[in-house]
Structure to design on (264 residues):
């Protein structure tokens, strides 16, 4: 959704809806005007895809390597955008007292959180489309056939990782350490769950760790939907595990989230 389209939508509907659309537009403007966010959150998965696609050859999971890498890097993009990007953003806003000042305005907390989450979903959706286009141009990867299942999977994955991102932000104590903490979680998770290539040659204890992480199950969904054309509901285990991780993250966020900077 472009900023112009958001602005048009803001002129219609109920006052609450207009307030939501106005805040959503503000979140999109803040994101795209930040060079760091555009580079490390939006563009980095694409850069990894181009680099890894140039290195891998042959087949992975019985399909051309570029196809499997595309599915894996959509998974990494989801975690990078909805988990890491959101967590760091919330910690910085909290510790710089931006969230505290927002609470003193007439903007309802629910409206702010909803706009932030929808903005994150829009960024990830655009990133997914861009990855498919890059794959098509550079490596001849096909476009997905199960479009409806893909859209639903993007929403489910973004929701689960956003909940985990808010929960993680609630537990991080300082703005200075936010990036280090989040990347300490994100990068090992990406390697252990197959975002950057197959894990079958990893030691068994590393595979066991990867088997309990939420990113593995989102990648399983992407593999089923994109690589094999299956519907979303053919992976009930992956959906259940993602829902469980998302519910756990939501519970922690509800109990621990703070609007004010931490003292000391």
């Amino acid at each position: 959704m472009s900023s112009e389209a958001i602005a048009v939508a803001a002129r219609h509907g109920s006052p609450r809806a207009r307030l939501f659309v106005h805040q959503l537009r503000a979140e999109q403007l803040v994101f795209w005007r930040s060079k760091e966010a555009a580079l490390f959150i939006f563009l980095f998965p694409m850069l990894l895809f181009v680099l890894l696609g140039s290195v891998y050859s042959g087949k992975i999971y019985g399909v051309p390597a570029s196809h499997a890498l595309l599915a894996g890097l959509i998974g990494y993009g989801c975690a990078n955008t909805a988990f890491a990007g959101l967590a760091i953003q919330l910690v910085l806003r909290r510790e710089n007292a931006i969230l505290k000042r927002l609470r003193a305005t007439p903007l309802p907390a629910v409206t702010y959180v909803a706009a932030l989450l929808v903005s994150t979903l829009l960024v990830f959706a655009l990133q997914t489309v861009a990855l498919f286009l890059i794959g098509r141009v550079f490596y001849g990867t096909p476009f997905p056939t199960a479009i409806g299942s893909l859209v639903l999977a993007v929403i489910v994955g973004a929701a689960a990782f956003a909940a985990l991102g808010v929960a993680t932000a609630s537990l991080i104590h300082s703005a200075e350490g936010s990036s280090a903490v989040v990347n300490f979680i994100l990068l090992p998770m990406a390697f252990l769950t197959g975002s950057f290539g197959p894990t079958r040659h990893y030691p068994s204890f590393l595979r066991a760790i990867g088997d309990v992480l939420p990113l593995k199950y989102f990648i399983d969904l992407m593999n089923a939907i994109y690589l094999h054309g299956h519907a979303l509901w053919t992976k009930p285990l992956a959906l259940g595990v993602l829902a469980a991780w998302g519910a756990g993250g939501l519970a922690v966020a509800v109990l621990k989230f703070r609007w004010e900077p931490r003292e000391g």
Observations:
- The first strand starts at residue 59 and ends at 60.
- The chain has two domains: 1-33, 35-256.
- Residues 65-95 form the longest helix (31 residues).
- Residues 6-10 have pLDDT under 50 and may be disordered.
